[in-house]
Amino acid sequence: MADKNTDFILGNNPFVLTGEEWKERRAEITPGFTTNRIKTVFPVTNKVCQTMIDFIRQQMKIGNKDGIDGKDLSLRYTCEVVTDCVLGLSADAFANRPSPILVMTKNLFDQSFVFIAYTLLAGMLPWIKKVKKLRFIPKPVEEFFVNLMENSLSMRKEQKQKGVNEDRVDFINYMLYLQEKKNLQIPELTAHTMTFLLDGFETTANVLSHCLLLLGRDPKRQQILRNEILAKLGSTNDFDTIMDLPYLDACIHETLRLFPPGAFSTKLCTESIEFENRNGKPLKINEGTTVVLPIHALMADEEHYENASSFEPERFLDGGLKKYKDQGLYLAFGDGPRICLGMRFALTQIKGALVEIVRNFEIRVNSKTRTDNQFDPTYFLMRLDGGIWLEFDSIN
């Protein structure tokens, strides 16, 4: 999908790399996503959550008849928390005026229909990439994040020399470690950092906004989640407890089933193989064949999921998630060795935000929001067409 010469940052992302390059890059980045590192920066998530709650209260006072833009709210949150966790900087994402980082983040994912069509075709017909290459990340956005990375590294080095933030086990410190160990240059470090940012910004905001939508449509299940949060957490924000809330997990996984970030995934067959299909007939896939996995179609199939179009988190309780994964029917984060690198980090962000919002507010869906699950055909991720508009009522 991306070429390192025309699109350096995305071209160096493990998501698009193959073979030994993929193994090497993934091995470098994986230690940055350890549970210990995520837990260490969780206070940052908590801090941003409180800022988000204050922002919601301010918007409630304004009283816009359309409510609050759920996607904008979610993107502000992920932009702020990821920028702080990864770069140690504030994005000022909840400021009244759009901050440069938030603007560039939106530009990063605001792709044209031409690019979306190209991506779809290139995934199914790889030879197209040899004929024509398109840049995913606009040049001004790339330059902005390269400069941001340079400034972040310089600032952290100065802090370490002064004895400040020496013990902060965050992602930028890990980047400094990689720079010293492997003598990586700024462009390579930027590509690494953008892996964290790409995984953390848009896709996470997409899941969070759709989970708020589904909870807003279902007051009963929203209350079940609120009861779990209050019973196990009260007013605290203990990391280990938040990571062990079964109904919260179920709500997130059901959201991902209904609104997976990607409608499909493409895989390249590296070795010819023959196996039986579901009808007992032999099926051979030759080396070099591109295989399209219809992720959304699998997870929306009534044959696999009863009441597939309904929001029913209970299906993922009591071993349900493992059952669907073992059957190859739950692929929200992919599967196998190329499963999403940032899965745990993304889930931690989503859980932190949902806990605070559900604990503080009753969520309702504004009438501006459509009532079905029609997807936006012009966007490269799966999102509700027309936007998600929410209303919040404070809980005393």
Write the layout of secondary structure elements.
Layout: H1 8-11, H2 19-29, H3 35-40, H4 42-62, E1 68-69, H5 70-87, H6 100-109, H7 113-124, H8 128-131, H9 139-161, H10 171-182, H11 186-200, H12 202-217, H13 219-232, H14 239-242, H15 246-258, E2 265-268, E3 273-276, E4 282-285, E5 290-293, H16 295-299, H17 320-326, H18 343-360, E6 361-365, E7 389-394
Helix pairs in contact: 4-5, 4-18, 5-6, 5-11, 5-12, 9-10, 9-11, 10-11, 12-15, 12-18
Structure, explained:
A three-stranded antiparallel β-sheet has the order 1-7-6. The protein is mainly alpha-helical. The model has no long low-confidence stretch (mean pLDDT 86). The protein is globular and about 60 Å long. The protein starts with 7 loop residues before the first helix and ends with a strand. The protein contains 18 helices and seven strands.
* CATH architecture assignment: Orthogonal Bundle
- Main pleated-sheet profile: 3 strands, antiparallel
Helix content: 40-55%
Structural class, by secondary structure, is mainly alpha
Number of domains: 1
- Poorly predicted tracts of residues: none
Strand order of the largest sheet: 1-7-6
CATH fold label: Cytochrome p450
Helix and strand sequence: HHHHEHHHHHHHHHHHEEEEHHHEE
Strand content is 5-15%
How many E strands?
7
Number of helices: 18
Which word captures the global form? globular
Mean pLDDT: 86
CATH-defined superfamily: Cytochrome P450
CA radius of gyration is: 21 Å
Distance between the termini: 50 Å
Name of the CATH first level: Mainly Alpha
